[in-house]
Amino acid sequence: MSTTTVSTTPKSARPLWRRLIGFNLLSAVILGIGGYYLGWWIGHLVSEGKSFEYTGATNENDAALLLAYFGGVIGFLIGLGFANYPVSRMLGRPASLREKEEEGIGRYFGLCTDHKVVGIQYLCGIGLFFFVGGLNAMLIRTELLQSNPTFVGPNQYLSLVGEHGTMMMGMMTSGILGPFANYFVPIMIGARRMAFPRIEALTFWLLMAAGFILTSTIFFGGFPTGWTGYEPLNDQAVMGMDSYICFFALVGLSMALLGLNMLATIITMRAPGLSWSRLPIFVWSVFATSVLMVLAAPMLVATLLMAALDRTIGTSFFIPGGGGSSYLFQNLFWFFGHPEVYILALPAFGIVLELLPVFTRKPLWGYRLAVSGMLGVSLLSFFVWQHHLFVSGINADLRPFYMLSTEIISVPTGFIFLCVMGTLWKARTSFSVPMLFCLGWAFNFLIGGLSGVFLSDTPSDTDTHGSFFVMAHFHYTIMGGLIFTFFAAIYYWVPKMVGLNFNEKLAKTHFWLMFVSFNSTFLPLFVLGMEGMPRRVSFYEPKFHALNVWVSVSAFVLGFSMLIFLFNTVYSLIFVRERAAQNPWRSKSLEWQVPTPVPVNNFEQIPVFDADPYDYGTPLAVGPAQPAGAGG
C-alpha cells in the first residue's frame, strides 16, 4: 500500500505570477483564442477552393468558422483545467477529487467542484447575458418608436430580434437550475455535493462559451431567422448563422449534462429518511425539469448538427432541392422547443410552491397534487409540439389531436394553480419582496395561460399566428413566469448564498415598477396582434404608431426597473454589506438550518429526515444527525 504526500501549503499562498499562469480564466482565454485561430486555419485548409462569395465582397467559409468555434471552446476548457483529471488518470498519477474548493476569490474564475461556487458562478454569468439580451430589447423598441426604419436597417433589425430571443431562450433554460438548483438541491436533500462535480462545473463554462459565441454573431453579419433558426433561411444565411448553431448546440449539451447530473444527485444521494413523498417541492420541480432536459436537449443538438452539415459539406437534410425537407427542421426543432417552454416554466412553479408556505405560514396545500401536475406537464409536453405548425402545411387530420393535447396540458398546469390558490386561502400572508414576486407570477401566468387557449385552437391560431398576439402570450408565460420567479429566488436565497441583505425599499421599488411596466408593455401587444400587426418587422402601418410608442416607453421603464435592481445589488452587497441572519424568513427547509456562509462540506453530520415537508406549526421537520459517513 503506497502513500501520497500532499503539500499543506495553500494554493492561495503561491506567488501571484504562479497563480496567473495556472489553470484559470486568464489561461482559458489565451488558449481559447489560440484554439480559435487554429480551427480557423484548419477550416480554410480543408475547404480550400470551396468558398463562395456573398454581397460581392466577403468570402464566406462556414467550415472555417465552425471549426474555429470548436477549437476555441476546446482550448478554453483546457485552459480552465478540465483536461487535468483525465490526463492524470491516464498517466497513472493521483488526481485531486476537489478542485479549488478551499481557495479564495480565485475559485470563482476557474474550474471549481464546490456546488455552491458553481451556483454563484451561474448567477453572475447568466445575469450578465440577461442584461445583454435586455439591451437588445431596448434597441428593438427604440426602432419601433417610428413606423418606418430609422434606427437600424431591416436586416440589422432581424439580427437584433434574433439575438435577443436566442440569448434569452438559451441562457434562461438554466436560469433557475444553474444558480439555485446547483447551490441548494444538495443541501435540501442532505447531500454534501453533486453526483458529478466536474460535470457540474463543465455545464457552466459551456454555457458561458456559448454566450460569447452568440455575441460574436454581429461580426459575421448576424442571422435572419429569429430564435427558431428555421430552414431554408438557415442554409441561405451568412456566417452569423454559424454562431447561432454553435450557441444552441453548446446550450443543448450543457442542458443535457446538467439534467443528467441533477437526476443522478436526487435519485442516489438523498439523506436517510428523505423519501420521495418528503422531497421538497422545489426539488420535485428540478427533477421534472431535468427529465425534460435529458430527453429534449439531445434532439436540439442533433438537429443543429444536421443543419451545420448542410451548410458545410453539402448534405441535404433540410434542403428540398437535394431531397431534404425544411418542414422536417421545424418538427425536430419544436420537438425540443416546446418541452423547452416547460424547462423554463417548471422551475418557476417549484419556486412559487416552495416560497408560499414560508410566507403564508401554512403547509403547502395539495403537495401530491402539485407533484402529479409537474410530472404530468413533463409527460404531455412531448405531445404538443405541432401546435406551432398549424399554419405550416400540417396534415389537417392531425390538427384535432394537437389541439386536444395542447388543451389537455392545461389540466396538470391547473393543478399547480389550484395548489397556489389553496395555499393562499385564508393565509396570514407576509408581503415580503420574494412573496410579491410570487404573487406577480400568479397574475402574469394566469394571463399567459388564458391567452394560450386562443393559440391552441386552429381557427383562432391561424388568425393570430405570427402576430404580436403570440409575442405577448409568450412573454406573459416566460418573462411573466420565469423572470418574476427568478427575482423571487434572488431576493429569497441570495442572502443565504452571500450572507448579505438587499435594501428592502429598493427591492420593493424594483418589484412595483417592474410589475406595472411589464403589464403596460405587453398587454397592448394583444391588441396590436388582434388588429393584425406582424412581429419581427421594423415597419408597420401608421395606425399602429400611437400604441407602439406607448409600448416602447413602457419597455424603457421596464428596463429602468432592472437598473434599480442592479443598483440595489451593488449598493447592498458591495458598499453597505449588512449581514444577513441565518434564517431571516423563519423557513423550515434544510438549507436555512445550516450556517451562513454554508461550509464547504455543507454538514458536519448527515441529517436524518423524520417528518413531512412544510410542516409549519410543528417542530423542525429534520431529525437528529447521523455520523458523517452514513447516508453517503
Defining traits:
single chain, 2 domains, 632 residues, Cytochrome C Oxidase, Chain A, mainly alpha
Task: Give the overall silhouette.
Answer: globular
Instruction: Measure the end-to-end span.
Output: 25 Å
Assigned CATH class of the largest domain: Mainly Alpha
* Beta-strand percent range: under 5%
Number of helices: 20
CATH architecture of the largest domain: Up-down Bundle
Computed over alpha carbons, the radius of gyration is 25 Å
- CATH fold naming of the largest domain: Cytochrome C Oxidase, Chain A
Helix content: 55-70%
Q: Would you write up a description of this structure?
A:
The protein is mainly alpha-helical and 632 residues long. It has two domains: 67 residues, no CATH class; 496 residues, Cytochrome C Oxidase, Chain A, CATH 1.20.210.10. The chain is 62% helix and 1% strand. It contains 20 helices and two strands. It has a two-stranded antiparallel sheet with strand order 1-2. A hairpin with a 3-residue loop joins strand 1 and strand 2. Helix 2 runs antiparallel to helix 3 and helix 5 runs antiparallel to helix 6. It is globular and about 65 Å long. The two termini are 25 Å apart. The relative contact order is 0.09.
